Automatic annotation (TrEMBL):
Cited InterPro entries: AAA_14, DUF4143, P-loop_NTPase
Protein name: AAA ATPase
SUPFAM superfamilies membership: P-loop containing nucleoside triphosphate hydrolases (SSF52540)
One of the Pfam families matching this protein, by short name: AAA_14
Domain DUF4143: 176-332
Domain AAA: from-to ranges: 19-137
Gene3D superfamilies linked: P-loop containing nucleotide triphosphate hydrolases
């Protein structure tokens, strides 16, 4: 088991300020394990309800009756199974009981947990839990993290074959059981085909018309499929950045499978040599690095963009926080070079810094405020940036 101390500390800080904190993340990403780790550092009583357990569901048949007498930390696991509990939580939170906190675990985005956004607005802080990150694994294992992905049971598997077997099983279970439980009423066969096609499209600009033609449905229908998988936290849409400059800019999102290990499973790439020999190898590495950047910067979706012009200039990832803009180019090479596109991005976007993340070993400057950074030094570089 890998101790996720940074995540625990962030949650403890949030619980000191907010009466309710929500941990959201894909199934099997480690939410329940993280909550158990947190309880070891919690000084007061802890009450745990697993809403996939019929006995706990029965105990919460009348949630107000059960919860109003509790004090300390109340953990509600798989909250999307019982959205009707949120009004009761709002009433209890509004009593402003200093000795009562709620830790809510869910396998869907806040947008999908519509009841929480309506009932707990201003009372809850969400924390998105991704898979294991570069700052949590032993030094020198970044390539294994890329190949296997960040799901703990996949990364920690006995060997690559066991890891691949786990990921293939996850995809099937997720499509056949988990998505219907989230209220997504699309056949598992259709979503499997869509997800597989999306894996081949990984890292590209979204083109609804192309997908719609393949499925023989309307553009709006395939857009709904994309949004459903995004809400289930297995797909990421990186929105385009555009502003008033004298260039025509791309205004569609880039799409990624959030976990590189799942991408490799969907592409049926069980081993390292399969991944390295596949045309999407560079794209899956780009997606992996972007997820690590977002995680290390604790960036929310409103801060994350890509940028591209119709004349060919582009930037893989743009982070905007306040008035500060930081760019990232991602190159799976050991010797990245300065490109014209990088210079255009620096000038047109008025970047404070541009980091070129690469697969080599050394940090070195490419130009003023443009620095090449190896993936192995990404954590320390971004911690300095923060």
């Amino acid at each position: 088991m890998i101790a996720r101390n940074n995540e625990i500390n962030l949650l403890l800080e949030a619980l000191a300020t907010y009466p309710a904190v929500g941990i959201i993340g894909a199934r099997q990403v480690g939410k329940t394990t993280l909550a158990a780790m947190l309880t070891r550092k919690w000084s007061g009583p802890v009450h745990h309800f697993d809403l996939e357990n019929s006995e706990d569901m029965a105990r919460l048949f009348d949630p107000m009756l059960t919860l109003k007498e509790l004090r300390g930390l109340v953990i509600l696991d798989e909250i999307q199974r019982m959205p009707e509990i949120f009004p009761a939580l709002r009433v209890l939170i509004d009593k402003k009981l200093d000795d009562l906190r709620f830790l809510i675990l869910g396998s869907a985005s806040p947008q999908m947990l519509r009841q929480s956004s309506e009932s707990l607005a201003g009372r809850i802080r969400y924390h998105r839990l991704s898979g294991l990150g570069l700052d949590e694994i032993p030094s020198g294992q970044s390539e294994q993290l890329w190949l296997r992905g960040g799901f703990p049971l996949s990364f920690l598997a006995q060997d690559d074959a066991k890891s691949f077997e786990w990921r293939k099983a996850f995809v099937s279970t997720f499509l056949e059981r988990d998505l219907p439980q989230l209220g997504i009423n699309v056949s598992s066969t259709t979503l499997r085909r869509f997800w597989n096609m999306l894996a081949h499209y990984h890292g590209q600009i979204w083109n609804a018309s192309e997908f719609a033609r393949s499925f023989g449905v309307a553009d709006t229908t395939v857009r709904q499929y994309l949004d459903r998988l995004t809400d289930a936290l297995v797909v990421r849409q990186v929105q385009p950045w555009h502003e008033n400059i004298s260039k025509r800019q791309v205004k569609s999102p880039k799409v990624f499978i959030c976990d590189s290990g799942l991408t490799h499973a969907l592409l049926n790439l069980p081993a390292k040599h399969d991944v390295l020999g596949h045309p999407k190898s560079g794209a899956t590495w780009e997606g992996f690095v972007i997820e690590q950047i977002i995680r290390l910067l604790r960036a929310d979706e409103s801060e994350c963009f890509h940028w591209a012009t119709h004349s060919g200039a582009k930037l893989d990832f743009l982070h905007v926080r306040g008035s500060t803009r930081t760019g990232f180019e991602i190159k799976r090479t050991s010797s990245p070079r300065l490109t014209r596109s990088m210079r255009i991005a620096m000038h047109d976007l008025k970047l404070k810094h541009l980091f070129v993340i690469h697969a080599g070993e050394h940090i070195f400057p490419l130009a003023e405020n443009i620095k090449a950074v190896p993936i192995s030094r990404l954590s320390e570089t971004l911690m300095g940036y923060l």
